Amino acid sequence: MIELFKYLSFKEDNSLEYREQLIAERILYFNEAHRFNDPLDCHIANWEGAQSYLKPARFFCLAMVTRNDNLMFAHYGDEHRGIRLKFSADEDQPISDCSVLALGKPVVYKHEIPVFEPSRAHDLYYLKSVSWGYEQEYRILALENTELQYRESELVEVALGARFNMALLPKLERWIAKGEHQNVKIVKAVPSKNFLEFEYVPVNA
Hints:
Elements: E1 2-8, H1 16-24, E2 27-28, E3 31-32, E4 58-64, H2 69-76, E5 83-89, E6 105-106, E7 108-110, E8 127-129, E9 137-142, E10 148-149, E11 155-160, H3 169-178, E12 185-191, E13 198-202
Parallel strand pairs: 7-8, 11-12
Antiparallel strand pairs: 1-4, 1-5, 2-10, 3-4, 4-9, 5-11, 6-9, 12-13
């Protein structure tokens, strides 16, 4: 099994539609590379030739267990006001039986730009500077703008950020119920005894 994490804002703005789609309908949304916060992502210097070997792709990005949770919540979870989704996917099944979440690949972080090899042009989609290593990113690619759905059993936890607006919790709970998720735990970040970290406690326990 592989555990994957998605950090999201959760506030009343236009992005809420995508959050609802992801949770209530279990549909992944795929971004184009030009929307990434790193302008060098998928645009590696001296790798211009890679584009001629590849079809344009869209991306759904998650983080792996080894990511820096505090920084990820700060940068992608609206400065700890948002949420973190935790997925568990079975990557040991035959490809024909795998969920879309199990078909991704980790990003590789490099100190220097590798020599471009046409036979490995696809590496363009999975190379980033070590300065982004705290993300420990995992990418799922789609070559078409297709609505891909994950399974009811794969969302196992929703963590609320330390600054989450608890007035929005009923909306989140309705989305979870609509998505027919199985055995989802809702937890909230609170300061731990180590003041540099957070721990997560059950909500409504």
